[in-house]
């Protein structure tokens, strides 16, 4: 039985979508953990899981105030680093995650074609922090920056610092 069919059976078609997506991500992380020695990873899988968890948390917090569906936002950020989880590499991981995100979402059977494309496009664009895209894309970029900040990353690029300052203000935490 495929992973997606297993998840469909566990959760059923009427259940909230984020748990289905998170279960897929967790199963993928477990699968990759079993092959950990075969990939030269830039980030360990524990870091990846914590990053996903933080991104989902902050996406839920920000989505309503930005008039974005919180379920769609949380699913988008849960999948945004799927390319790096699969390849172990940061370079081009956003582009590498586009097709796997589409396959996962389509396989779950609980997203419309438009939602699948919107989420997968957000995955593809989340690393392009220097440009402005759709509201969902911008939310994904912002929570990615903020989660990395929470994980101890220091930013040097001006557009990253600007994003971090804005997101901290939006979360009522003040500037850098």
Structure description:
The protein is mainly alpha-helical. The protein has one domain: Hypothetical protein af1432. The chain is built from nine helices and no strands. The chain is globular. 36% of the residues are buried.
Descriptors:
Hypothetical protein af1432, 9 helices, mainly alpha, 68% helix, 176 residues
CATH topology: Hypothetical protein af1432
Mean pLDDT: 84
Helix content estimate: 55-70%
Name of the CATH homologous superfamily? Hypothetical protein af1432
Give a topology summary.
Blueprint: H1 3-11, H2 17-34, H3 45-63, H4 70-79, H5 82-87, H6 93-108, H7 113-125, H8 135-150, H9 158-170
Helix pairs in contact: 1-2, 2-4, 3-4, 3-8, 4-7, 4-8, 6-7, 7-8, 8-9
Briefly, what is this?
The protein has 176 residues and is an all-alpha fold. It has helices at residues 3-11, 17-34, 45-63, 70-79, 82-87, 93-108, 113-125, 135-150, 158-170.
